[in-house]
Write a structure and sequence with these properties.
Chain lengths: ~200, ~210
């Protein structure tokens, strides 16, 4: 999956806006949006909010997690926890990127928030990389009891490991089967041979 | 590479792999098979104990018992012998798999069936295991200048391409502000318009026939 497709999926998240115009409801296949009343807060999909923001028809209400203090706590939590922590938004990278690009003037402390998001993403990426290393080389001694957790990863993050990780694992698993098959053949033959020799004695 | 490689009857890679020659010795006199040994094309029969190099697909067909083959004794190719095994164990990333055999893993998979010590299976498995992390790091640090000396096996090369593409796409997405969504590669390859094309071709050929 391309990042653009993930962005497309992420854009569907509901976001608050305050329109500055009156308009009747828009009927779309997925749902109905509106009606719009000037000054009255309402929820629309993010893509529509951004579109109207570009035409200066509304003000975006930021998601609560775009906040310096909250993100700082999140970053500390992410640092402390060896596993992945739950993110406040399923597509936090997509949403924050879109908001940074199109609603920069509405975000207080935008530079700090940007850095924090980037830090959190980098911490999670580093964790993901070491987890993948564990999967790829961890049990070279044929012990398959390593335990890794990919919980709470967001779509974009999973897609940085895909499709390489599953494909590589397929190859390893296929060769492992060959190895086990032939080493078990070997055991069978040695066993039968020893059986044979013991019976002749 | 849209899906993981798995050999099947129609996969071109599998056909290429089974074209590889494998050294064999005739176990018994084989009548009228002298042509298999190009160095002694004048003799009609293949004598017992004569060494020939035969393609893998042929050996796979004539052998009836996996471990013991009554017509030919199959030798393990040099690249799966212990000297290379030692190198692989010491540092699997240093070895140039592509130069040894373009389909190192796949060929090894077939060869492992003839190896009664179980050494080949172990060797390719452990080599693969220790090379995958190296390959992943290679994908993560993609630089267009450092492309040529990767020393990869065919499957590894495919993996490298998908892996580096993922990273490149992510990097581009993080850099750019807005990108328009593109038609996915899979949809392009669907060729939904094939029927329309075929109908057009049929119409052309029909008109040509009516003219003649």
């Amino acid at each position: 999956m391309d990042p653009e497709e993930i962005e497309f999926i992420g854009e569907n998240v509901s976001t608050g806006i305050i329109p500055n115009f009156n308009f009747e409801a828009i009927h779309l296949i997925s749902n109905t949006i509106g009606p719009f009343k000037a000054g009255l807060p309402m929820y629309v999909p993010l893509w529509l909010g951004i579109h109207m923001k570009k035409q200066q028809k509304c003000r975006l209400v930021l998601p609560t997690w775009i906040d310096r203090d909250l993100l700082e706590d999140k970053k500390e939590e992410e640092k402390r926890d060896p596993n992945f922590t739950k993110m406040p938004c399923e597509n936090y990278m997509v949403v924050s990127k879109l908001l940074f690009t199109h609603a920069a003037d509405d975000i207080p402390n935008i530079d700090e928030v940007k850095t924090l998001i980037k830090d959190i993403f980098d911490i999670r990426q580093a964790k993901l990389r070491s987890t993948i290393d564990l999967v790829l080389i961890g049990n070279s001694s044929m012990e398959s009891d390593i335990k890794v957790s990919f919980n709470n990863l967001t779509l974009l993050e999973i897609n940085t490991a895909r499709p390489f990780l599953p494909f590589a694992n397929d190859l390893i698993a296929r060769l492992e089967r060959v190895y086990q098959q032939h080493s078990s053949n070997l055991n069978d033959t040695t066993q039968s041979a020893s059986h044979f020799s013991s019976s002749t004695y | 590479m849209k899906r993981t490689y798995y050999p099947n009857y129609f996969s071109i890679e599998d056909i290429f792999v089974t074209q590889e020659k494998i050294p064999c010795t005739a176990e018994q006199k084989l009548s009228k098979l002298g042509f298999l040994d190009p160095s002694s094309s004048d003799s009609i029969d293949l004598q017992a104990g004569q060494n020939v190099e035969l393609p893998l697909w042929y050996i796979l067909q004539v052998q009836t018992d996996k471990s013991r083959n009554q017509f030919y004794k199959v030798h393990i190719p040099d690249i799966y012998k212990s000297t290379y095994g030692e190198i692989c164990r010491a540092d699997a990333t240093a070895i140039d798999l592509g130069k040894l055999n373009k389909y190192f893993y796949e060929f090894g998979r077939y060869v492992a069936a003839f190896d009664r010590n179980g050494f080949v299976g172990k060797m390719i498995y452990e080599t693969c295991r220790s090379r995958m992390k190296y390959l992943k790091d290679l994908c993560n640090n993609i630089n267009s200048e450092t492309r040529n000396d990767h020393k990869l096996d065919y499957i590894e090369l495919q993996l490298f391409e998908v892996g580096s593409k993922t990273n490149r796409n992510l990097y581009e997405w993080l850099q750019k502000n807005t990108i328009n969504i593109k038609t996915s590669e899979m949809v392009i390859n669907h060729r939904k318009r094939r029927r329309a094309l075929m109908e057009a071709e049929n119409a052309v050929s029909a008109s040509q026939r009516s003219q003649s």
